[in-house]
Amino acid sequence: MTTLTNATLVLPDEVIRGHIVMEDGRIAAIGEGHARGEDCEGDVIVPGLIELHTDHLETHIAPRPKVRWNMTAAIQAHDAQIAASGITTVLDALRVGLDADANITSQDSREFADAIVAAEEEGRLRAEHHFHLRCEVSDEMAVDGFELFDDVAKVRLISLMDHTPGQRQFRSLEAYKVYFQGKSGMNDAEFEVFQAERRARAAIWSDRNRRALADRAKSRGVIIASHDDATLAHVEEAIRDGVTLAEFPTTVEAAAASREADMQILMGGPNMVRGGSHSGNVSAGELADMGMLDILSSDYVPFSMLQAVFVLSDREGWTLPAAMATVTANPALALEMADRGRLREGLRADMVRVRRRAPGEVPVVRGVWREGRRVV
Q1: Which residues, in sequence order, are CB contacts of 236 under 8 Å at separation 6+?
Q2: Which residues pair with 38 in a beta bridge?
Q3: How far is CA 134 from the centre of its chain?
Q4: Is 344 in a helix, a strand, or coil?
Q5: Bridge partners, 226 (sequence order)
Q6: What global pTM score does this model have?
Q7: Are β-strands 364-370 and 351-355 bridged in parallel, bridged antiparallel, or unpaired?
């Protein structure tokens, strides 16, 4: 049994000063006032964070072009950073059906998944890992890539992505040109051929693959997310496909239509921390002001989830319980994981000790417990 006392506890609807008891991997008791145990010196105790979309794994496995790091070592490094960011449940984003510039294959993604499962079984990992398949529907091999994961039970979520230039994230062809040429080094003539080929390929494959992947996900009971929706037509397509989670809508129009369709709305933590989208799309803060933000994801910076919660509270005026729900209770609801995401007696003892002494200060993670076991 472990007791944390003299703590500021962020409960689902209020913040209290008191103590919390962990026993047999569960929260055994919560109370106001002092108790015998580890003195938290007033630090904030919050539920373990639940992350639905991190692209962070690939940066460890392929840290440089043509460089592949030892996979187990890369996974442990990724996991350590995830856990030290307060994340106790993570969906690692794995790409299937790939962008033309990708330097990995769907088979690589399957190998990453197998290595994560093996590392978890060997007790190497601190967080609990599941998978989010990022399905690029414009690629003719998207369905074949998805089927590589038919026997992987840890697939909890897929997102239906289409990064064809001229729409969604890249509505501005000029912005796409600047982004892609900077990344690839193509000259103008090479870029024109490339973008024309991508658009032609999408015209053949995007819609048929979107429908086929949605059908396969529904038959497996896997949750479906849209990605970068920008228009009412995109949202209508998502409704048709059984989408319940709108991931990174790029306009207020798409977010409002998603809300009208009872979808949860997910935005990036980096967007909230930076105060805007790096692609020039709608900001997470703007959607928060309009009551259209349910979930924050780390996207490409794991620590941004926790930092974004305090930005949401400091800058946008959300209560700490409401802001914290965007990285705990709400993603748990999206994944139908009723055993976690809140500080409540009987739920999993996944929790994070955070020190932050003043508004605007970057928080410090001082301890992380998963199912009552200290992992950081």
Answers
A1: 257
A2: 4
A3: 11
A4: coil
A5: 246
A6: 0.92
A7: antiparallel
- Measured distance CA(38)–CA(21) in Å, rounded: 10
- Which residues lie below 8 Å from residue 341, measured CB to CB, with a gap of 6+? 47, 50, 328, 329, 330, 331, 332, 333, 347
Strand partners, 161: 136
pLDDT at residue 101 in the model = 60
What single letter denotes the amino acid at residue 126? R
pLDDT at 262 over 70: yes
Could you read off the pLDDT of 94-112 as tens digits, one per residue?
A: 999 876 566 788 999 999 9
The pairing of strands 44-47 and 351-355 is antiparallel
- Render pLDDT for 196-241 as a digit per residue (tens, 0 to 9): 888 888 889 999 999 999 999 999 999 999 999 999 999 999 999 9
What is the rounded distance in angstroms from the CA atom of residue 158 to the CA atom of residue 217? 7
Round to whole Å and give the CA distance between 14 and 321: 6
CA distance 308 to 168: 24
- Cα torsion 141, 146, 151, 154 to 10°: value is 150
Query: Can you give the pLDDT at residue 12?
Result: 96
Residue 215 sits at the vertex; the CA angle it makes with 214 and 216, to the nearest 5 degrees, is: 90
